[in-house]
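pinging the channel bc i need a second pair of eyes. not urgent but kinda urgent?? the chain im working w is below, pasted from the shared doc
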Amino acid sequence: MKKQISEWKLLLDPLVEKFDNPAFIELDPIRIPHQFTRKEDIEISGFLASTIAWGNRKSIINNASSIITLMDASPLDFILNFSKSDEKRFENFVHRTFNSTDLLFFFKSLKNIYKKHDGIEGAFMQEFDGKDIRTAIAGFRDLFFEIKHEQRTTKHVSNPLTGSAAKRLNMYLRWMVRPNNTGVDFGIWKDIPTSILSIPLDVHSGRVARELGMLKRTQDDWKAVEELDFVLRQLDPNDPVKYDFALFGSSVQ
C-alpha cells in the first residue's frame, strides 16, 4: 500500500494543483455562490446550487442562476421575507426531477432554519459529534424536514445513514469548510475540520478512482465513500477531499 500511496500522490497532486484554482470556477456550480460576499448569501446560494448539481453542468449553472435571479439576487433577504406572494414566480421552475414544489419547500425550510436554528451552519452543527461527518449531515437533514413537507421532496436531501453517498452534500461541505487558499472553496465554516470531510463521490470520480485501483466497491454508495476516504486520508490526512479536484477534474477534461 505504501508504494501505491506514493504513486497515487505523484499522479494526483499535480492534478489537484491544476484544477484547484480560480479557472475551475467558471464551468462549475460553485460559481453561483462566488457571486456573493456575505456569509449567509454564500451559504444559501451554495446550498441551492449544490442541491441541483447533477446532470449537465451548463444546465445546472443556468438553472441555479435562474433561482438566484428570481430571489432578487439577495438570498438571505429573500429567505427571511419569503411569503405566499413570492411563490408564483417559481411555478415553472424545473431541473430534472427537482421542481417548483421542491424548491418552494426548500425556501420554507431555509426560512425555518435561519429563524430557529442559527442558519445552515448552525443546523449542521447541532448533531455534529466532532468526528463523523455523517452525524452532521443526518442531523441537518432531520432539521430540514422538521416542518410539513411532501414525501417526494425528501429524495433531494440525501441521508448517508441509509447508505447514500450524499455526493451533493459532501460537495457543499467541501465548499463551506475547505480554506479559501486558492480562491475556489470558501472556508467560512470554522468548526468542522477538513480532515473529516468525505469525498463527493459520483459516477465521474468513482470511475477514475476505480481505474486507478483506489476503489474496489462497484456501487457509488456510502461504503464506497468510506473506502475511498480511507485511501485519500493516506495521501493527505489533513485535507483528503482536495483530491476531489483531481478525480473529478481529470474525468471531465
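so Residues 2-19 form the longest helix (18 residues). and Residues 25 and 31 are 5 Å apart (CA to CA). — does that match what u expected or am i reading it wrong
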